[in-house]
């Protein structure tokens, strides 16, 4: 493998792409620590240390590489774009025009991408306004940093400074979106996925260091590392697994030429939805706790939410989390894989599944296979998402260093990036990374 990586850097074109990708990653990490205008960086660090156990915005802070709680230029990270992309995909089910654009090919995809960018900027403005407001009132840091207090995180509370901070965070989101698209066009791998990968991976060393020093010593640290390696092995195995449905294409005459007569297969991954169900479930479970922060802390409904949703180890939280993952796994798979459309395309080009009639019987067979495969994939997602939390509770670790969502994203993005490098090496007749 090391020899293959060395050969990749010896190839001029591939070396240029790798160095370009690394340069964009460096810029992204610098922006994650560059404070927003008007923010007192020293007071922010004090408030972050004081509210280390607050997990209200933990998921977004994880995807931003810790930039959210730093109130940096890239505080929003890539989350507005992810949210906008998911919303546009879901709207395909509701708005027929979006579904028609999706079927138009490259021109329709470009139009949907344009809509996604507009929605990203709109969501970035809303999220930046929410973050600045919660930081000024002390909600973001659990009461620390409130305007007029001893350690305000925003030194100048004038409207001009607030508007400038909101515009800076929004512009930072637009810049992150542009950097990700540059990686996709001129670098290696999917830009959005790589930036998420870097953000999550950047938080791992500090979290593991905390476990080694303050939460059980070397033995606990060793158990956490072994658990991570075991889960990574399971994720790699399942993400590479697929159900292959054989497809036979009949021979047909077009002019004097004979087409078809080939055999292929439809690859159906066990986890077709990827990490989307876990992200959806985590985002929804985060909303009640976030709303409770704005209410009267002595109210009954606030106490009930904080008791059941603020702690990831709560049985109610875990059960709700598992049910939401199961629901979104089936829901997202149903909108990304349409058995009727696949069956119609196969019938149009003379394809059929051996032993199954073309048309409606093929669609029913594909739907039957999808339901069975998705059932196994959704259970796998639930186990991967919950096992780290349960294991850390048993080990007595309060600050959870990583979760199933983090491992799924890191392994998935890592595999896709390595596959792209491997395919480019094989195009140049070199030995690939994957054996």
- Termini distance? 9 Å
Structural class: mainly alpha
Subunit arrangement of the protein: single chain
Number of strands: 5
Please give the share of residues in helix. Answer: 55-70%
Explain this structure to me?
This protein has helices spanning 2-10, 12-33, 41-50, 58-63, 67-70, 79-94, 96-103, 106-137, 159-186, 191-214, 217-240, 276-292, 300-309, 315-336, 339-348, 360-394, 404-427, and strands spanning 242-249, 252-254, 257-259, 263-269, 351-352. The radius of gyration is 24 Å and the shape is globular. β2 (252-254) and β3 (257-259) form a beta hairpin. A 3-stranded antiparallel β-sheet has the order 4-1-5. With 435 residues, the protein is mostly helical.
Keywords:
mainly alpha; 435 residues; two-stranded antiparallel sheet; three-stranded antiparallel sheet; globular
In brief, what are we looking at here?
The chain is mainly alpha-helical. Helix content is 69%, strand content 5%.
List the helices and strands and how they pair.
Elements (H helix, E strand, L loop, with lengths): L1 H9 L1 H22 L7 H10 L7 H6 L3 H4 L8 H16 L1 H8 L2 H32 L21 H28 L4 H24 L2 H24 L1 E8 L2 E3 L2 E3 L3 E7 L6 H17 L7 H10 L5 H22 L2 H10 L2 E2 L7 H35 L9 H24 L8
Antiparallel strand pairs: 1-4, 1-5, 2-3
Helix pairs in contact: 2-9, 6-7, 6-8, 7-8, 8-9, 9-10, 10-11, 10-17, 11-16, 11-17, 12-13, 12-14, 14-16, 15-16
